[in-house]
Amino acid sequence: MDTQTSTAASATHSTPHGQRKADTGHLFSIENAIDRAAQSLMNAQQPDGHWVYELETDASGTAEYVMLTHYLGEAPKLELHQKIARYLHRRQLADGGWPLYTGGPINISSSAKAYYALKIMGEAEDSEPMQRARRAILSHGGAEASNVFTRTLLALHGIVPWRAVPMMPVEIMQLPAWFPLHLWKMSPVARSFLVPLLVVNAKRPQARNAYKVGIDELFNVAPSSLHLLPRTPHQSAGLFALFRSLDAMLRAMEHLFPKHNRQRAIDSAVAFVGERLDGEEGLGGIFAAAAMVVMMYDALGYPRNHPLPAMARQAVEHFLAIGDREAYCQASRSPVWDTAFIAHALLEAGTPVAQAAAMRGLDWLRQHQILDVRGDWATCRPNVRPGGWAFQYANVHYPDVDDTATVAAAMDRADKSTHGEAYREAVVRSLEWIMGMQCHNGGWGAFEAENTHSYLDSIPFSDHGAMTDPPTADVSSRCLSLLSQLGQLPANSKPANRAIDYLWRKQQPNGNWYGRWGVNYIYGTWLALCALNAAGVAHDSPRLQRAVQWLIATQNEDGGWGESCASYEYDSRHFAQASSTASQTAWALLGLMAAGQVSHPAVASGISYLLATQGQDDLWEDASVTGTGIPRVIYLRYHGYPKFFPLWALARYRNLRRDGVTRVAMGM
């Protein structure tokens, strides 16, 4: 049997001769679609072996890029501004605002920043798009309803007062480890963004604003009259009131803070940033942090040609995606993530040329394993050796277990398919790191262990609700899948046993699982079903069958699956059905096949949907957003998702039907 798609312990079924004949034409169409998609992906492979696709978010990041150049007083780049303006106009809703995701409602923060960016770039206030935007923003609460981060940017531009922004003293850098607001109790993403922001908040500089651009017309009240925002739904009423009182006290006493203590704290923050700057990836590999670092150095008076601010400023440019007509700013860059998944898809496709391309990608990934840097994660796990991968080209202080498990599973799969050990050392080292990062409750967070101080989400600054990095079902499923694929099963492995217990506890009453890093319940349920299958759970398990029935019940009439980011909203927190997408359809199919439902009509319909929607470029396209950065704050459109996940699903289906098996052998 093919070790990529079956196992000696797999359940096999007898297929009638007539049925096999009926399958022949269908499987031929699938084979053709697989070959075309695989070839198109291979054509996109970079010369050094990796793949990378654009990573798009809402209008906010692009607007923030324009605001940054305006803050710095840089000369306008007219051609780039024209492309950015076209992009912002295209993303504008018919009713005038800008959304966080495809099909979503107006988002005030994104809309205020997009409007301001257009105005900075010279758009006239009385143009039709600007009038439409202004009406929409005012009718939905005005720019005063913008979130904390947007208010911070507006304060830097002199548009709102600093009292409208929560106090975050830079002296946080000097607090002892036992203190509730200690930096290391925050998530790595929050930490990498917050540290330079602390310095900026302490210095409170003002943008150059050479053209004196303002947006007072977006406010229903005078911007100068603004105070702090009210509590958001995720924040505890009692804790929020406590922290608001602390905010008022710190604000009243700030002038008494010893200057030498403040300088020591600023020095600590600058040292923290300098140690973690990773060339063209900036700080933490995310645009928002990279841009804040630029503003930090500027606020401290560093000359532009100093190596550190020059490196930080250059890093910001690397986030731009510039096309012939449009340009936008990416939230991050995803070469490790894209390359790992494409390797899985090509290995599933199974041809010698596809396997060779996959292994070139894995060779590139092997060079990017982080083996000699003990990142921030080591604070909680000091005795664990490094061995992970980061999401970006370079981000050595912040590897994540999600990427690491995905890469290691592909490498192990490649070794199994070639009966070799080319990647054995890398896989063993990554498994050691992943097992060391398991939390006490059996799950895994994305970046750190035991990062669960949820009270931090109730501080006034945390209206985004993402100050921590707790274990999640989707990341934990990926890790359990890897452990099981490598022989660490619940019956013989304590980490795997704890992981499967955690996963069962996280199953929702209707049978699905919440997806933290992908939209949403389809994503989480796909990964959980893969993990449970890999761990040896019987396909007729009642709990597993609840998940199967939920996936089948949520299929669209066209045979595909789709889910909106609205499923993350506080007032719903349940599955929000949407138009079918290629990536979410592939996830649902992979989940159903992992649960043994290879011959179910829902799977056949899903396969037909993918065959019908394959594009002229032999791949697929999703206009909808299917990735998640921070629920309710930032969503991610991975341009690669609809290109490689459908290939994986089609090839998986072809392999299982061809071999007459119902149990997937690989972890994912």
Structure commentary:
The longest helix has 27 residues, at 17-43. Helix 7 (188-203) runs parallel beside helix 10 and helix 13 packs across helix 14 (401-418). This protein has helices at 17-43, 59-72, 78-91, 108-120, 128-139, 148-156, 188-203, 237-253, 259-276, 287-299, 307-317, 335-349, 352-367, 401-418, 424-436, 473-485, 494-506, 521-534, 542-553, 582-594, 601-613, 641-659, and strands at 55-56, 320-322, 327-329, 561-563, 577-581, 627-630, 634-638. It has 22 helices and 7 strands. The strands form 3 sheets. Strands 1-7-6 form a 3-stranded antiparallel sheet, with no helix packed on it. The protein has 668 residues and is mainly α.
- N-to-C series of helices and strands: HEHHHHHHHHHHEEHHHHHHHHEEHHEEH
Q: Beta fraction of the residues? A: under 5%
The amount of helix comes to 40-55%
Q: Measure the end-to-end span.
A: 18 Å
Structural class: mainly alpha
Poorly predicted regions = 1-22
- Rg, rounded, reads 25 Å
Strand order of the largest sheet: 1-7-6
Task: Using the alpha-carbon principal axes, give the shape.
Answer: globular
Number of helices: 22
Break the fold down into its secondary structure elements and pairings.
Elements: H1 17-43, E1 55-56, H2 59-72, H3 78-91, H4 108-120, H5 128-139, H6 148-156, H7 188-203, H8 237-253, H9 259-276, H10 287-299, H11 307-317, E2 320-322, E3 327-329, H12 335-349, H13 352-367, H14 401-418, H15 424-436, H16 473-485, H17 494-506, H18 521-534, H19 542-553, E4 561-563, E5 577-581, H20 582-594, H21 601-613, E6 627-630, E7 634-638, H22 641-659
Antiparallel strand pairs: 1-7, 2-3, 4-5, 6-7
Helix pairs in contact: 1-12, 1-22, 2-3, 2-4, 2-10, 4-5, 7-9, 7-10, 10-11, 12-13, 12-14, 12-22, 13-14, 14-15, 14-16, 16-17, 16-18, 18-20, 20-21, 20-22
